[in-house]
């Protein structure tokens, strides 16, 4: 396994950042459009040469502007996966995946074996003789993942890999990437706008704003207690920290218990495992008195603020006991008027268990 160290200064793009990724770690990069997220990937891959800086992959120096070192992209042992699979249209699926190992001079037999292995790993071996135009978006992205990994890269760069996919395909790709990254133990960088990508794949999160690192830390930490404007915006879901009890119940540090379902149809983690419960504000019902009925998750809160969200009113409670942002509920203006919601009043929030997805929380080291 190989760690990565990056320093990149690009005057024209007003980018100045420095960060590292440990061997076996997944770093998610978040930020608004034009902040410098893709620039970071392009510097690592060698598609962009910084004015000043370096890229070190283990004991290999790929870029060092002071020493005049710049290894070309094809010789960096870096796998790049974009939101557009960019498969070669004139090649079959098998030939597309074999291209990278052949570029690494593994020979026809070795390249063919690598292609067969990785197509089986991504559950796409049935497409070997198809051309890219005969694949769905999800199928093409699976093939692109196989191609990125077939060359045995030391680091994997993922640029919005789930963008444009439907919900089912995105969930399958997430599960596949999590399995591959966990088993292979290579460093990876994930540029995304989707909080579920972060929750399911990332160890740490780095938020970039205006070409600078605004914050960096454990994924759960950044999403629950962001210290940057964009971190706060992307944390638009309700997210609760805790650890698992028997039956998949999430217990918070304050003792509150939340019932939910395993994220993306997976299995619950071991008892004591750190996890987060995630649910959208639209799934939260609001009551003046404690409700009785089907919702299994109920909590009494004090309203901190109200905010107009188009056709909905967002009711947000005060901060959670661990300092995380307060729970939010989106209700209609009619409901807000009927409840006579104002800041400072006490309300009950209720969420059905099937609306609450429980996600694993990965290592927060580094």
From TrEMBL:
Domain ABC transporter: 1-235
Membrane spanning stretches: none
A Pfam cross-reference name: ABC_tran
Mop domain boundaries: 292-360
Molecular-function annotations in GO: ATP binding
InterPro entries: AAA+_ATPase (IPR003593), ABC_SmlMolc_Importer (IPR050093), ABC_transporter-like_ATP-bd (IPR003439), ABC_transporter-like_CS (IPR017871), Mo/tungstate-bd_C_term_dom (IPR008995), Mop_domain (IPR004606), P-loop_NTPase (IPR027417), Transp-assoc_OB_typ1 (IPR005116)
Superkingdom as given in the UniProt entry: Bacteria
Keywords assigned: ATP-binding, Molybdenum, Nucleotide-binding, Transport
Full protein name: ATP-binding cassette domain-containing protein
């Amino acid at each position: 396994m190989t760690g990565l160290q990056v320093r990149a200064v690009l005057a024209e793009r007003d980018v100045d950042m420095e960060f590292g990724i440990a061997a076996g770690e997944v770093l998610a990069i978040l930020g608004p459009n034009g902040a410098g997220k893709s620039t970071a990937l392009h510097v690592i891959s060698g598609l962009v040469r910084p004015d000043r800086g370096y890229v070190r992959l283990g004991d290999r120096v790929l870029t060092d502007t002071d020493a005049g070192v710049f290894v070309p992209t094809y010789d960096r042992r870096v796998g790049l996966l974009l939101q557009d699979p960019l498969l070669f249209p004139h090649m079959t699926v098998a030939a597309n995946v074999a291209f990278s190992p052949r570029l690494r001079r593994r020979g026809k037999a070795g390249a063919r074996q690598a292609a067969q292995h990785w197509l089986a790993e991504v559950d796409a071996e049935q497409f070997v003789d198809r051309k890219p135009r005969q694949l769905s978006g999800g199928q093409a992205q699976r093939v692109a993942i196989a191609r990125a990994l077939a060359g045995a890269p030391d680091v994997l760069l993922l640029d919005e890999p789930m963008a444009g996919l439907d919900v089912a395909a995105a969930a399958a790709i997430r599960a596949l990437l999590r399995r591959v990254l966990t088993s292979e133990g290579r460093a990876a960088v994930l540029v995304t706008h989707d909080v579920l990508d972060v929750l399911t794949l990332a160890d740490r999160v780095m938020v970039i704003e205006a070409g600078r690192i605004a914050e960096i830390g454990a994924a759960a930490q950044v999403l629950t207690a962001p210290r940057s404007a964009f971190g706060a915006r992307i944390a638009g879901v309700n997210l609760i920290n805790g650890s698992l009890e028997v039956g998949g119940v999430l217990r918070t540090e304050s003792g509150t218990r939340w019932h939910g379902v395993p994220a993306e149809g997976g299995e619950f983690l071991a008892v004591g495992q750190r996890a987060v419960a995630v649910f959208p504000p639209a799934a939260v019902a609001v009551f003046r008195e404690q409700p009785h009925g089907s919702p299994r998750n109920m909590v009494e809160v004090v309203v901190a603020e109200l905010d107009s969200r188009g056709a909905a009113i967002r009711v947000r409670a005060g901060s959670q006991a661990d300092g995380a942002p307060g729970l939010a509920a989106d209700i209609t203006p009619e409901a807000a008027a009927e409840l006579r919601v104002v800041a400072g009043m006490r309300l009950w929030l209720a969420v059905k268990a099937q609306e609450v997805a429980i996600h694993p929380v990965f290592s927060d080291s580094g």
